[in-house]
Amino acid sequence: MNITVLMEKVYQTLKLVYMANPKEVQIKIIGINGSPRPKGNTAQLFDEALQHAWQNGAETTRYDHKRLDIKGCQSCYQCKEPGKEGACVIKDDMYQIIDDILSADGVVFASPVYMWQMSAQAKLFSYRIFLQASPAKGDL
Ligand SMILES: Cc1cc2nc3c(=O)[nH]c(=O)nc-3n(C[C@H](O)[C@H](O)[C@H](O)COP(=O)(O)O)c2cc1C
Question: What's the gap in Å between 37 CA and the centre of ligand 1?
Fold first, then answer.
């Protein structure tokens, strides 16, 4: 998806929610920049998307991977254990980010292209979403 399509989707989502409840709703958008350069090319497009959301009334929060402590998934599967669902053994900045994402209406996830893929930094983040986003251990 390119940035124009992404920005249009953010805008359409905001518009739909405002139309449903114009006065009371405060939309929350979380932005994660998976580039190691907080002022690089990715950041310019990323800022544009967040600014667009903000100009349309959303509360926005920006995270830059460069300024975060996010470790790699340990594949321990504790987050899939009954009674411990969603709890990660790694205590780092992902705790705050997961909380923010769960209370958000939308997430803007940006990454530069590295070797035809998302960056390793963006992947670190995406693997840690595993605790919320994938099937239970027995289903894998
Ligand atoms: C390790 C590395 C791998 C890259 N691989 C690709 C690639 O596969 N295709 C591409 O078009 N650009 C590639 N690039 C160029 C970056 O995608 C480009 O410079 C991008 O704008 C960097 O984003 P940034 O300014 O947020 O760091 C690569 C750059 C680096 C450092």
Answer: 11
CATH number at residue 66: 3.40.50.360
What do you get for the CA distance between the two ends of the chain, in Å? 28
What mean pLDDT is predicted for residues 83-100?
88
Domain span at residue 126 reads 3-134
Write down the pTM of the prediction.
0.82
User: Is 140 a member of any domain?
Assistant: no
| Strand stretches in the chain, DSSP E | 28-33, 59-64, 106-110, 113-114, 117-118
pLDDT, one tens digit per residue, over 7-41 is 777 777 777 776 776 666 789 999 999 999 999 99
Spacing, Cα 60 to ligand 1 middle (Å): 26
| Tally of structural domains, the chain | 1
